[in-house]
């Protein structure tokens, strides 16, 4: 019924929920940025990564009827998911930009800067991480079907280990290194810094995320190519 309008409603409703629960009730700081912008920036980024991961995690099981009839490079299927999800991400970026302009015109403490030029690279990192983790899970679910039920739960838990609803500066010092081990942390922090001026840009953390993405993609492709030769026997 809602059609494409759900692309707008989903981040808006989630942002409202986070603003009420984490902003008004829990009083979690947002580095001086209006809570609506802070949460929406995190949601837009995290949403793209999470969608890439969950969509690709069911590649073998969801496409078994196609894979069993005709041969084509199997990686085309998860890649098509990652690329098609860019449309949803683009629509939500337009929404975020609209809110950003509104708050800026009303004198809010937001400072977009030159690091916005890193946006294509940040999208590439998010897509690579989502694709890498997704094809690893997809490969394993051909034999261990229960993993598919854990993906959604795991993604939700991982979100709370990422500075989506809180700034990195608000995390306790003794646990901050654990949060920084999450490769999505630097990506979301850089995104918020570029568009909102919140937090700080750390090139070392972003390099770590880049290396992690390359490693997880390499592992994922190796496992995926190995499983695709025999997956019809198990699926």
Give the helices and strands as they follow along the chain.
HHHHHHHHHHH
Determine the mean pLDDT: 87
Indicate the low-confidence ranges by residue numbers.
none
Radius of gyration: 19 Å
* Share of residues in strands: under 5%
| Helix content class | over 70%
Shape: globular
| Number of E strands | 0
Describe the main β-sheet briefly: none
- Structural class of the secondary structure composition? mainly alpha
Structure write-up:
By secondary structure, this protein is mostly helical. Helices cover 72% and strands 0% of the residues.
Layout of helices and strands:
Layout lengths: L5 H20 L9 H22 L2 H4 L1 H4 L8 H30 L13 H23 L5 H14 L12 H9 L1 H14 L6 H25 L3 H4 L1
Helix pairs in contact: 1-2, 2-5, 2-6, 2-7, 2-9, 5-6, 6-9, 6-10, 9-10
Q: What's the short story on this structure?
A:
The protein is an all-alpha fold. The protein contains eleven helices and no strands. Helix content is 72%, strand content 0%.
Label this structure with key terms.
235 residues; mainly alpha; 11 helices; globular
């Amino acid at each position: 019924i809602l059609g494409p309008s759900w692309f707008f409603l989903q981040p808006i409703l989630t942002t409202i929920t986070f603003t009420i629960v984490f902003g008004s009730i829990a009083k979690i700081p947002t580095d001086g940025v209006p809570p609506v912008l802070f949460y929406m920036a995190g949601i837009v980024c995290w949403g793209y990564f999470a969608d890439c991961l969950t969509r690709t995690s069911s590649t073998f099981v969801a496409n078994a009827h196609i894979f069993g009839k005709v041969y084509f490079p199997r990686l085309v299927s998860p890649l098509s998911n990652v690329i098609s999800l860019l449309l949803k991400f683009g629509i939500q970026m337009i929404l975020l930009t609209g809110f950003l302009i509104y708050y800026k015109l009303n004198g809010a403490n937001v400072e977009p800067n030159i690091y916005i030029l890193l946006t294509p690279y940040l999208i590439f990192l998010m897509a690579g991480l989502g694709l890498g983790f997704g094809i690893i899970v997809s490969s394993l679910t051909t034999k261990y079907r229960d993993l598919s039920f854990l993906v959604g739960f795991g993604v939700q838990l991982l979100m709370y280990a990422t500075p989506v609803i809180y700034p990195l500066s608000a995390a306790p010092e003794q646990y901050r290194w654990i949060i920084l081990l999450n490769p999505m942390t630097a990506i979301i922090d850089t995104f918020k810094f570029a568009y909102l001026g919140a937090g700080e840009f750390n090139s070392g953390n972003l390099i770590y995320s880049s290396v992690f993405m390359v490693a997880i993609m390499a592992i994922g492709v190796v496992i995926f190519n190995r499983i695709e030769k025999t997956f019809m026997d198990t699926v």
